[in-house]
Amino acid sequence: MLASGPLLAPDHALSRVLVRTVPDSVTESLSDLGNIPVALPVLALAMAYAARRGRLLAAGAAGLAMALVPALVIPFKLWTARPGPLEPWAAGYFPSGHTATAAVAYIGAALLVRPYTRRAWPTAVALVLTGATAVGLILRGWHWPLDVLASLLLCAPLLLGVALAVRRGPVSRRSTRRSSG
Predict the structure, then answer these.
(1) Which of 41, 94, 108, 161 has its CB surrounded by the most CB atoms within 10 Å?
(2) Mean pLDDT over residues 30-39, rounded?
(3) Please, what is the average pLDDT of the chain?
C-alpha cells in the first residue's frame, strides 16, 4: 500500500479543499463521462468511421488501446490498494479507471476523426470531455488528484500508439474534400 511519500500530503490537502465544492449532481454527471457505456460508443463510432475510410490499422490501434486500459489500471489498483478520499476503508482508487477510459475513448476518437476534418475541434472536445471527467471525479471525492494524473500518464503511451497508427495510413482525397454549398 502506498501510505507515505512526499506527494501524498499535498494530494490530500488539495483534495480536502476541492471535494464537494460543487453540487454532487454536477460532479456525478461529469464523472459519468468516464463510464464505459458513455465513453466506449464514442470511440466505437470513430473507429467505424475510420475503418469505413480504409484506416483499419488506426481503428484497430484505438480498439487495442481501449482493451489495454484495464490491463494497465487493474494491476496498479491491486498493488497500491490506495483508499479513496471519502472512503478510507475501501481500496483500489489509484489510478482512476474512469479517467483512463475517458482519455483513451475521447482522445482516441479525436485522433481517428481529426485527419478528416482538418480542424482542431475534435481534439478540443476530447480534451474538454476528458478534463470534465477528471474534475468531476476529484470534486465529487471519488478520486484523489494524483489518481487522475496517474491515469493520464498511464494512457499517454496508448494514445501515442494510436497517433502513430493514424499517421501511418494515408487519408484519401475523397474523404478530406470539403463539400461545396
Answers:
(1) 108
(2) 98
(3) 91
| Torsion sign (Cα): 149, 151, 154, 159 | negative
Look up residue 158 and give its amino acid.
Answer: L
Which class for 173: exposed (0-12), middle (13-18), buried (19 or more C-beta within 10 A)? exposed
Q: Residue 108 has what pLDDT? A: 98
Give the model confidence (pLDDT) of 39-72 as tens digits. Answer: 999 999 999 999 999 999 999 999 999 999 999 9
The H-or-E segment that residue 77 falls in is helix 56-80
User: Distance between CA atoms of 83 and 144, rounded to whole angstroms?
Assistant: 9
Angle at 160 between CA 176 and CA 60, to 5 degrees: 65
pLDDT given at position 5:
80
Rounded to 5°, the CA angle 76-80-84 comes to 105
Tell me the three cell numbers of residue 10.
499535498
Q: Which of 162, 107, 114, 113 is nearest to 131 (CA)?
A: 107
Q: How far apart are CA 159 and CA 146, in angstroms?
A: 20
Residue 99 has pLDDT above 50, yes or no: yes
Q: How much helix, strand and coil, in percent to the nearest 5, is found in the chain?
A: 75, 0, 25
